[in-house]
Each structure stands twice: as C-alpha cells, then as structure tokens.
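Late entry, evening session. Most of the bench is empty. Finally got around to the prediction I had been postponing all week. Sequence below, unchanged from the version circulated by S.P.
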Amino acid sequence: MVREEQGRVAGARRFGRSSRGSGERALSPADQQRFPPLPTTLADGRRVVVRFLGQEDGPSLGDMYEGLPPKALRHYGPHPLDREHALRNAAKWDHPHEVVVVLETAEGEIGGYAWYRWRDAEAEASGFGICVREDYWHCGAGRALMTRVLEVADAGVGPRLMKLTCQHANEGAVALYLKLGFEVVQEGMCGDRRGFPAEPQYWMERRCG
C-alpha cells in the first residue's frame, strides 16, 4: 500500500515554475495534486501503485538495482546500477529539472521506475529512461510507468521534446515507444556496455503537450 506519509511528503516538493517562453516548467504543487498515487492492475492481475519517487525510496531502489540479472544490464544504462546510485537518485527526489515515478508493489517494494530529466530551464529537450525489475517484465509495468510519465509531460512539465535511445534488439521496448508516440529520428551504434559488444540502436523523440 502507498504510505500516507509518502503522499504528504511528495505533495510538499520544492518545485518552481520556469519563465521559459516555450512552456517548460518544473513540477508544481498543483501538478502533484493532479497526479496523485495511481493504483493500477497489471496484465497478470497484480496490484501496484504508480507514484512519484520519495527520499525514503533509496534502499528499496537499491534492492531493485542489485537484483537485476546480467542480461538486463545490456539495456539499462549507461548510468551505474548499484546501491550508491539509487541512494543518490532518491536524495534528489525534489530536483527542479527531474520527474521520477516508481512502481510500488503490494509488498511496498520498488518494482520499477521511469524518469525524464532536463539540464536547465533553457533546455530544448529532456532525456527519458526506465528500469523494471525482472519479475515485472511482460506484464504491463513498463507501460504503466511510461503512461504516467507522459501524462505529466503532456501537462506541460518539462521541455516539449523528449528523447531516448533503444537498441534494435530490445524489440518489445521499441514497439512500446512507438505505440506511445515516439518516432525514430536516427539510427547508429551504441558503444560497449558492461561487457556487451557495440550494437545498433535507435534515437527516438516524442513531442509532448
């Protein structure tokens, strides 16, 4: 279950609006109220809650990182997937240029998270990323996370252009991105990653709002 305290803390995030003429702005308290914790039923019947990341989620996020199988490291990155990185992420839960949502399981654990970040108030685009625990693959968890992130982005939070990269071999993710409005704008190669050889990847973009 979602902890009531988590909801109260999230609602008090220290976000401010940007004056950028293109419409980019940070997440405000009013946005928090518009996007409260969202109970969701996955395709396999499991009940989860999609909500904003909180500072206290660091240890659970670290557990998720450390439990990822080696094959997952091929697609998730290039940032470190360790406990230290998880704690740093949770510590900046109220960063003005980030939106991070997590999938909370019925056991109160983190089953996945998705984010988009942008450099500053003048940024023309944000970068999107997602990471899902192996036991929540192929059940709609990624779609649930992405749908919530895009709802926030389409409400005008952050730059209007969102970018991501995805390997050709990650066919399920590519298909989901296309269904949710991303378009392939370029193809190329990603470098060696955690012992995996370089391989083809797509650069994809989506207009939000």
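Two things to note before I forget:
The chain has one domain: 4-158.
The longest strand covers residues 199-207.
Will write this up properly tomorrow.
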